[in-house]
Amino acid sequence: MDLFIEELMLYLTIVASASKISTFVLMKEKILRLLEILESDIFQPHDEHEEQILVEANRFNSRYWKVVAFISYTSNLTNMALPLLAYILGKDKLKPPICSYSFLSDETRQTLIYPIYLYQCLGIHFCMLSNVNIDTFILGLMILVIAQLDILAVQLKNITNPSNSGVVNERDQSSRIDDTDAILKFNKAVQRYNHITEFCSLIENVFSISLFTQFSIASGVICVCLFRFTLPSPLQYYIFLGTYIFIMIIQILVPSWFGTRIMDKSCLLSHALYSCDWTPRCHQFKSSMRIFMERTKRPLSITGWKMFPMSLTTFTSFQHFLFLTVKSVTRLIKLICRDIVGGPQWDVTRKRRRQRAFLGHLLAVGNKACFYGDVKGNNDFASD
């Protein structure tokens, strides 16, 4: 069982890393397009306040990368260095840190233990680096989307403020506000919103499959690690499992959190536009305003393979189903072990009762997870 769990963790991690790396290789042109949009004139700040929003977003990206890199390095070095330290102190034999290579004989593994150990350490190190950098890159794009939505909200609030180009005309001995400047500002804000929408769609087209794979693989790894905690292991392995579970949770929690922020910020644009001084404006401005507010009722979102949105509701649904699944699997293993220990002469009625109870528990798990996802997931999902 220990061997199967460790090999399964390695397999799932490699599949997730291969999916992310292949995305960068196959979607290189679209990724360059994303960077071009970020460097375009429409996304550049126009005053100190807008520039401060972008500076804070970039600063957060840098801090987040440092935190994730520190935790990843800690988990990786703990798993690699402690077995080597125990071998140097003469407390145990040197073992491969990742894969045991059970298809090789014990004599062959002991003969090639140093090349195998070095190969696995380098391989898992580069795998860790690719995961850290790709995950933070995707998150950085989402944070920049939030920053652009904040800038757009500021522009919409100040859309009716007078500027140097504003003109005031007098007709019939009464002052009347000229809406030409406000309409021009509103057109620029709509253009910025269209570019943000295009940017979100391009992020989804590039990383949709990777995000879906990441959610699925991370949930599977968390499930396997939680079950592995129930089995006896040395202290350093528990440290590795704890940090590894934390990283897997972060990998799906953070995109879900900022996906929810994107949806909330896009919905709040209508409130920002409503905050401007729109009551004395012309009919053309008010009509355009109504159309834009109707559009913002459908929030921007980034989905995983067009199946579920990146939101906290999706995260809680995944975790809810995950923990119920671990509980069901643990119960199934206990039932199997109890039957095996009891020998071939078990009570048929008791066996059928256990099978019915377990199937009923599985159905309850599925119904709860589906109900939880349907009730809360539909509120966040934005159809195109």
From TrEMBL:
Localization annotation: Cell membrane
Keyword Mitochondrion: no
Gene Ontology MF annotations: odorant binding; olfactory receptor activity
GO cellular component labels: plasma membrane
TM ranges: 9-27, 67-90, 111-131, 137-156, 211-231, 237-258
InterPro entries associated with the record: 7tm6_olfct_rcpt
Key words of the record: Cell membrane, Membrane, Olfaction, Receptor, Sensory transduction, Transducer, Transmembrane, Transmembrane helix
Example GO BP: signal transduction
One Pfam family matching this protein: 7tm_6
Cell membrane in keyword set: yes
Coiled coil (residue ranges): none
Similarity comment: Belongs to the insect chemoreceptor superfamily. Heteromeric odorant receptor channel (TC 1.A.69) family.
Name under which the protein is recorded: Odorant receptor
Species: Leptosia nina
